[in-house]
Design brief:
With about 400 residues, the protein is mainly alpha-helical. Among the domains are: about 240 residues, no CATH class; about 35 residues, no CATH class. The strands form 3 sheets. The chain has a two-stranded antiparallel ribbon with strand order 1-2. Strand 1 and strand 2 form a beta hairpin. The longest helix has 27 residues. The protein is globular and about 80 Å long. The two termini are about 15 Å apart.
């Protein structure tokens, strides 16, 4: 007697929504495409930033552009430290490379601005590759010392070759508003739009890179280099690649910062800038691009806000207010590390964890057309993750009876 074949399991319709958290749901085709999902988020962010910029004044546009430049540099640093496990205190030097190359191309070759940005980013990446090859055998404090030496030594090239790099006065880098925006469009708003646009593109590329095989290899190298090598990963190549990506982001941040400030000088890329970038990466949360955004915002807004508060209340004079940013970084770092040891983004994820788990534990509402007697093939428990939720399969009670009869 032939055994009847079981009823085939039907996949859920494509119209079902995949939830990513409380109140956040997207279609399965969008959830499966990492590049498309990140592109949608970037477009939404660009529209939001454009609307915000229109309603702000010139000074707030300047702050927004500065935040975007610092976010790009901090994002590269958090990928280097948080994902590949390498310590760097010299990313301010790579920002200087990008800024000076952009200024030289602008002054002597008169290239278009978009080509200048790309060329300066590539130049910083090449310098990062050279330094990464030289420092591939260094670990821990030795690697940190080598990057610290780079941050201290590189600005002195401006003084040594003052005829080309402008010495202490630096080089001018003044851009104009494109003609298609009209004569009444403000330069500060154009700088904000340009910086935010480049920052969103950089974050989009980094977000896809850390979700790719390269990002997984970086995590494997960070966790255990020996195990990663046994798994077939070229550890040295991955570490050099991390330096290249981090240096490219720093170079792009240096170009954007030079565009906002209007000049490139040794005083713009000091050792304190490298330390501030490292502080921002730790404050935001190492290994998290969202943490890089938090760190970039704090890097620009926190010292200015605290300085205004202290001076307005008479706690410090105008002469002593220059040391307030240093104190502000120390206070913010101590407070954040005490409250959120894994950074701001790590703390927010920990606080939102119970809410997300409670939302996932709730039984799913039946969709129209579903059989009310249908049961889950994986048991009565609801799925715990988006991957499990997209892999639900339903079957009828008749199919269950047939399977029990075969047993």
């Amino acid at each position: 007697m032939a055994t009847p074949s079981p009823t085939p399991r039907q996949a859920p319709p494509l119209s079902d929504q995949v939830e990513f958290g409380p109140g956040i749901s997207v279609s399965p085709w969008l959830a499966r495409s990492t590049l498309l999902r990140h592109a949608v988020f970037a477009i939404v962010g660009a529209v939001a930033l454009g609307v915000i910029s229109v309603s702000l004044g010139a000074y707030r546009d300047f702050q927004m552009a500065t935040v975007a430049a610092n976010v790009v540099a901090v994002a590269g640093l958090t990928v280097l430290i948080g994902l590949s496990g390498q310590i760097s205190i010299g990313n301010g030097a790579f920002m200087a490379v990008g800024g000076y190359v952009a200024a030289l191309l602008f002054i002597h070759l008169h290239w278009p601005l978009e080509l200048i940005i790309v060329a300066a980013t590539v130049a910083a990446a090449l310098v990062g590759a050279i330094f990464g090859i030289a420092a591939a055998r260094l670990r821990g404090p030795y690697l940190a010392g080598a990057t610290l030496m780079l941050a201290v030594a590189l600005p002195f090239f401006a003084t040594r070759f003052s005829g080309v790099l402008g010495g202490d006065q630096g080089l001018g880098f003044f851009i104009t508003v494109p003609g298609f925006l009209g004569v009444n469009f403000s330069l500060s708003r154009w700088q904000a739009w340009l910086s935010c646009g480049c920052g969103l593109i950089a974050l989009l590329l980094l977000a896809n890179l850390v979700r790719s095989r390269v990002g997984r290899s970086w995590r494997a190298v960070r966790d255990d280099e020996v195990a990663a090598a046994l798994a077939g990963i070229n550890v040295a190549r991955m570490q050099i690649l991390a330096f290249i990506v981090s240096a490219a982001c720093a170079g792009l941040g240096g170009v954007l910062l030079a565009i906002v400030v209007g000049t490139v000088s040794p005083g713009l890329f000091t050792l304190s800038l490298s330390i501030q970038l490292l502080t921002a990466a730790v404050l935001g949360g190492l290994g998290s691009l969202a943490g890089a955004i938090w760190g970039g915002v704090l890097l620009v807004l926190a010292p200015t806000y605290l300085q205004d508060v202290v001076v307005s209340h008479g706690f410090a004079s105008q002469t002593t207010s220059s040391s307030i940013p240093i104190v502000a970084y120390g206070v913010v770092l101590i407070v954040v590390m005490l409250i959120f040891p894994r950074g701001i983004q790590g703390g927010l994820s920990r606080l939102a964890g119970p809410i997300i788990r409670r939302n996932d534990d709730a039984p799913a509402a039946p969709t129209p057309g579903d059989d009310p007697r249908a049961v889950l093939t994986r048991g009565d428990d609801p799925p715990r993750s988006p991957r499990e939720r997209t892999s639900w399969r339903r079957r009828s009670p008749a199919a269950d009876r047939k399977e029990k009869g075969r047993r």
